[in-house]
Each structure stands twice: as structure tokens, then as C-alpha cells.
Write a structure and sequence with these properties.
By secondary structure, the chain is α+β, with helices and mostly antiparallel strands. It folds into two domains: 32-169, Sandwich (Jelly Rolls); 176-205, no CATH class. The chain has four helices and twelve strands; from the N terminus they run αββββββββββββααα. The chain has helices at residues 2-18, 173-178, 184-191, 195-205, and strands spanning 32-33, 36-37, 67-72, 86-92, 97-102, 108-114, 116-122, 128-134, 138-141, 147-151, 157-163, 171-172. A five-stranded antiparallel β-sheet has the order 3-4-11-6-9, with no helix packed on it. A five-stranded antiparallel β-sheet has the order 8-7-10-5-12. Strands 1-2 form a two-stranded antiparallel sheet. The longest helix has 17 residues, at 2-18. The model has no long low-confidence stretch (mean pLDDT 91).
């Protein structure tokens, strides 16, 4: 009986450990595939692959939207490769806004740590969910849905956004429409905006056509 128990325990231990891979730190020199980056050789992995200090610092909000997003996605933080998590810092100056955008690859959880932020998203049924958040509040934005954040106070605001993917992706609606070479006539026809408005927005955001 003792021999049988020993064999069973040995088999269970082998089965439990056979398929275990603790982590897959991204080899950023390799290709970025739908399954993520290939793994850096274990012998070259260091503790710094699992630590990021980039979110200590405020982003530069001297831009048209008066906002900055500092990501810690797989390209900046190789340790998250394959783990289905990542994070970013959001800085909003007074009057700052993160325009309507989507993350095709992840849901987002926003935690406000300073100031006041009005945030919201639009469902696929065009229902609108908006709330003004303050320090300590969190809000969820489901994957792929249009959402936004706006500074809602007279002071700079800071928040941290965590994502359910190491590569959440980003598409900003305004830039998708007006910051490329999509012909103005097509933009006008698909948005019902007049020619003058489309040309003005293209000029502001660097688009052509």
C-alpha cells in the first residue's frame, strides 16, 4: 500500500509541474504575434523585467488635449507578456480630456487618485453611462466600447487604468476620422458633418484629403 501511495503521489506531482510555466517575459526583439511575444530565455530574465518605475512621473500635458497617458503595456513592461494584465497612468490638466476612444483588446478599470474626473462609456445599444469620480473611486469600461475621461475640477487630476490584456490596443475616434488621409467627402458622408467642419478638424489634427 505504501508503494502504491508513493507512485500515485509521484505521478500527481509530475502532472502538476509538467505543464507549468511561471512566466513568459517578452523578448521585444522578436515578433509581436496574436499570442504575444516569444519568451526571453529564462537565464536572461532579471527582477527588472517585473518592475516598472515609469508611472512615478507625471506625463506631459502640454498638448491639444491637455492630457497624457503613460502606459506600462508589454512594450514598456515585458513581464506582463501573456499574463492578461497591464496598467497606465492618466494625467489630466485643468480642462484636459481623453477623447472618445476604444480598447479593442481589453476591458479597463479606472482608479482616480487625485482630483475629479467625469468619465463615461456608450454601450452597443447607445445607452450612456456617465459619472463624476473623485479620489478612491473606480469605474469599469467594457472591452471595445467607446469611452472618455474629462477633468471635472479646477485642479490637475490623476488616475490609473488597469487592463485585462498586456496589449489592450487603442483607437481614438477623433484621430481615426480627422488625422489621416481619408477623403473629406467620405468623412462628410459618413458623419453628416459639413465640409467646413471636416476641413477645420483635419487641419487641427493633421489630416489630409
Amino acid at each position: 500500500m505504501i508503494h502504491i501511495l508513493f507512485i500515485v503521489c509521484s505521478l500527481l506531482t509530475f502532472s502538476a509541474n509538467a505543464g507549468v510555466q511561471d512566466f513568459c517575459v517578452a523578448d521585444l526583439k522578436g515578433p509581436d504575434t496574436p499570442a504575444g511575444y516569444i519568451c526571453k530565455p529564462a537565464a536572461k530574465v532579471t527582477v527588472d523585467d517585473f518592475v516598472s518605475v515609469g508611472l512615478r512621473f507625471s506625463g506631459n500635458t502640454s498638448n491639444i488635449i491637455k492630457a497624457a497617458v503613460t502606459p506600462a503595456f508589454v512594450e514598456q513592461f515585458p513581464g506582463v507578456n501573456g499574463l492578461g494584465i497591464s496598467i497606465a497612468r492618466l494625467d489630466l490638466a485643468v480642462g484636459g480630456v481623453v477623447p472618445m476612444h476604444t480598447h479593442p483588446g481589453a476591458s479597463e478599470l479606472l482608479l482616480v487618485t487625485q482630483g475629479f474626473i467625469t468619465a463615461g462609456f456608450i454601450s452597443s445599444a447607445n445607452s450612456v453611462y456617465v459619472k463624476t469620480l473623485q479620489k478612491g473611486d473606480i469605474m469599469l469600461f467594457p472591452q471595445g466600447l467607446l469611452h472618455f475621461q474629462v477633468n471635472a475640477g479646477g485642479v490637475s487630476s490623476v488616475a490609473y487604468a488597469s487592463f485585462s490584456s498586456a496589449t489592450p490596443g487603442l483607437q481614438i475616434l477623433d484621430f481615426a476620422l480627422f488625422a489621416n488621409n481619408l477623403p473629406s467627402k467620405l468623412v462628410e458622408g459618413t458623419t453628416f458633418l459639413d465640409d467646413a467642419t471636416v476641413k477645420k478638424l483635419k487641419a487641427v489634427l493633421g489630416g489630409t484629403g
